């Protein structure tokens, strides 16, 4: 399990009680139109899987 990773998306397969993420690794990608991400809204969690 990834250590100290919190997630509020309870429809994800990796979500656990107390908003813990049980995924063994986390993959985050940028969807910003520039090379530099400046806010979380410009990222997506590719680790997400529907329950």
Quick structural overview:
Helix content is 0%, strand content 20%.
Contiguous runs where pLDDT drops below 50 for at least 5 residues = none
What is the percentage of strand-forming residues? 15-25%
Rough outline? elongated
The end-to-end distance, rounded to whole angstroms, is 17 Å
Mean pLDDT: 90
Q: How helical, in percent, are the residues?
A: under 10%
Given helix and strand content, the structural type is mainly beta
Q: What strand order characterises the main sheet?
A: 1-2
Radius of gyration: 12 Å
| H/E series | EEEE
Number of helices: 0
Number of strands: 4
Largest sheet: 2 strands, antiparallel
Write the layout of secondary structure elements.
Blueprint: E1 15-16, E2 20-21, E3 28-30, E4 43-45
Antiparallel strand pairs: 1-2, 3-4
Structure report:
This protein is an all-beta fold. Helices cover 0% and strands 20% of the residues. The protein is built from no helices and 4 strands. It has strands spanning 15-16, 20-21, 28-30, 43-45. The strands form 2 sheets. The chain has a two-stranded antiparallel sheet. Strands 3-4 form a two-stranded antiparallel sheet. The mean pLDDT is 90.
């Amino acid at each position: 399990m990834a250590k100290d990773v919190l997630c509020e998306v309870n429809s994800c397969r990796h979500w656990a009680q107390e908003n813990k993420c049980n995924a063994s690794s986390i993959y985050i990608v940028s969807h910003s139109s520039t090379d530099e991400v400046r806010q979380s809204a410009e990222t997506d969690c590719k680790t997400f899987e529907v329950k």
